[in-house]
Amino acid sequence: MGWAVYLAGKFGAVFTESCRTAGSVFILLGDTLRSMVQYRIRWDQLWEQMYFIGIRSQVVVLTTGAFTGAVFAAQVWFQFKRFGMESAIGPTVSIAMCRELGPVLCCLLLAGRVGAAMAAELSSMKITEQVDALRALGVYPTEYLIVPRFLALVISAPILTGLALVTGIGCGYFVAVKIFGVDGAYYWDNTIKFTDSKDVVIALIKSFIFAVIIAAIACHKGMNCPPGTAGVGKTTTEAVVNASLALLIVNFFLTVLLNALLYSN
Amino acid sequence: MIQLKEIWKSMGGQEVLRGVNLRLGPAERVVVIGRSGCGKSVMLRVIMGLLQPEAGEVFFEGKKLTGLSEEEWNPYRRKIGMLFQGSALFDSLTVFDNLAFPLREQGEKSDAVLRDKVAEALKIVSLSGTEEKMPAELSGGMKKRAALARAIISRPDIMLYDEPTTGLDPIVADSINRLILHLGKMLGMASIVVTHDMVSARMVGERISYLHEGKIYFEGTPEQVDRCEDPLVRDFVRGHAEGIGITG
After folding, report:
1. What is the pLDDT of residues B173-214, one digit of tens each?
2. Chain A touched by B82 (CB under 8 Å)
3. Which residues contact A247 (CB under 8 A, 6 or more apart)?
4. Is A37 at the interface with chain B, CB within 8 A?
5. CB contact under 8 A, A132 and B50
6. Domains, chain B
């Protein structure tokens, strides 16, 4: 009986702490949205972040998109050729890329690359009193530090996801048609015929929401870093892990919700 | 100019300030001394509005600041400069951009004006010619002076110094002390200096307050502090550990 009470207590403590953290993430998100409206946008900071997030992430995102499409096309070809369904490879790859693989993998990579960088940079600023120095100089940290990062990520993520989709579908075509000898005309025809514009919309909506999650969690972690250099490492790791887990969990609910909304009739 | 009334503040569940009262007049230099962890830096952060006290009030030129929102604090923060213990220069900006930062935030856009004001501030702290250096390229003493230049560039009415000489060699520490005196006399700034360096305290303080167990335990001129026979004050001033039960 004692151990059951102990476990219940532990579970309760973890649950309460999780709720508290989620609450403060939402408060930070609300403050970010309010600051976006209340203060002028710092364009120089925004461009700097767009360059770091949007331009500097292209290689990793395009490589991931390309090889995901290529591997998926190969795996589908291995299975479908047994049933003579090679012409269905195109739409299968395309729909899978749009609805799941593109946004999820692209944003998982962004959580690792950009989320870690955001959390590390903000937590370093926090422990070296730079955030306090900003406040002492009369600058609101959310407006100066978080808004440009948040905006840059939510603008860049859908664009990067779009690029990942294009390279993934293109590489899937290359593997199926040029390597495995699937008829190119049928491949494209079926891809276009069965891939709906709603599939692309799903990809963009998902990547937008994932970007919000990554930015909110990474910035929250960074701004609440415990003192000391060990805190920076811990904060960075937690930011990536929490953002990745949140992204995967939210993906399930988004999939159900978006299918219900877009394909209800 | 600044008055603290019965300030209470806890950090991590522990009461750090337990009813602190302090008053700072125009162009006055007050030094707050006390052992490490006694709440000196917390007190400065409360004055600057970086921490909100649980009880008590902070007044600036008669206006009550406690309870103001972050945005409402900002106009007052621009009248108060703060030198942080770790300098807190923005490490992604050059020295020039660090110094120009507060001016740009106050709407100054002219490059010529910014160049002139930055050069003037750097000259005051004897750092002329370091405009294009990054903070990582500066020594500890140079960082402190650059941070001091940033804090005074918009001519605040009051300067708060958080351990200005900690971690510096005696020569550099002396130069920082002289700067604090010089700024007070030249620019007429009032200042609160938080330190546990008694050399610094005697040199810059017109009045010294000893913070102990969250309260101002003793207050007086440097001479009065030196003559004080209270064992707590005496042991601190003379740097004796016997009072806390540690003997050689």
Report:
1. 888 888 888 888 888 889 999 998 888 889 988 999 999 888
2. yes
3. A104, A107, A108, A111, A210, A213, A214
4. no
5. yes
6. 2-240 (3.40.50.300)
Statement: the pTM of the whole predicted model exceeds 0.90: no
B73 or B90: which leads in pLDDT? B90
Q: Does residue A34 sit at the B interface (CB-CB below 8 Å)? A: no
pLDDT tens readout for residues A194-248: 988 999 999 999 999 999 999 999 999 999 998 888 889 999 999 999 999 999 9
Q: What percent of chain B has pLDDT over 70?
A: 96
Q: Which of A51, A122, A135 to mutate to test the interface with B (most CBs of B within 10 A)?
A: A135
| Residues of B in Cβ contact (< 8 Å) with A130 | 88-91
What Rg value do the Cα atoms of chain B yield, rounded? 18
| pLDDT bracket for residue B247 (50, 70, 90) | low
Residues 118-177 of B with CB under 8 A from A: 150
In angstroms, what separates the C-alpha of A156 from chain B's closest C-alpha? 23
CB-based contact B70 A133, cutoff 8 Å: no
* Token output for A63: 């490589």
Rounded Cα distance between A226 and A238, Å, is: 12
Cβ neighbors of A212 (< 8 A, separation 6 or more) are A29, A150, A154
Give the C-alpha separation, A199 to A161, whole Å.
13
Cα-flanking dihedrals φ and ψ of residue A2, to 5°? -60, -45
- Report which secondary-structure segment, H or E, holds A85: none
